[in-house]
């Protein structure tokens, strides 16, 4: 009986590299403004940096949101004082804006 070899990714660096590539792909959106902000931020991430693992996880969750919601959170100013951005995303959204403006 022949043994079948199951391919696994033994190295967590490889897992982070795959996640980073997935994040880059998911930054491609139908909304150009949102795409520019997200792409600029994602380019600054490094899969080699273990300190960014949690940040990449939150970004992955953020990217599951629809384009209109991301546009409201990232681009539109909070005109009426009713910020609808979930607290877990606020630091990340501020970092995304900052990185884009400093680029």
What does the model show?
The chain is mostly helical. Helix content is 56%, strand content 0%. It has 5 helices and no strands. Helix 1 (12-26) runs parallel beside helix 3 (53-62) and helix 2 crosses helix 5. The longest helix has 15 residues, at 12-26. The model is unreliable at 5-10 (pLDDT under 50).
H-E order: HHHHH
Strand element count: 0
Tell me the strand percentage band. Answer: under 5%
User: Uncertain segments of ≥5 residues (pLDDT<50)?
Assistant: 5-10
* SS-derived structural category: mainly alpha
**How confident is the prediction overall: mean pLDDT?**
84
Percent helix range: 55-70%
Based on CA atoms alone, the radius of gyration comes out at 17 Å
- Bulk shape: globular
Biggest β-sheet: count, sense, barrel?
none
Tell me the number of helical segments per DSSP (H or I, 4 or more residues long): 5
Distance between the termini: 58 Å
Short description:
With 103 residues, the chain is mainly α. Helix content is 56%, strand content 0%. Helix 2 crosses helix 5 (90-102).
Key attributes of the depicted protein:
mainly alpha, 5 helices, 103 residues
Detail the topology: elements first, then pairings:
Blueprint: H1 12-26, H2 32-43, H3 53-62, H4 67-74, H5 90-102
Helix pairs in contact: 1-3, 2-5
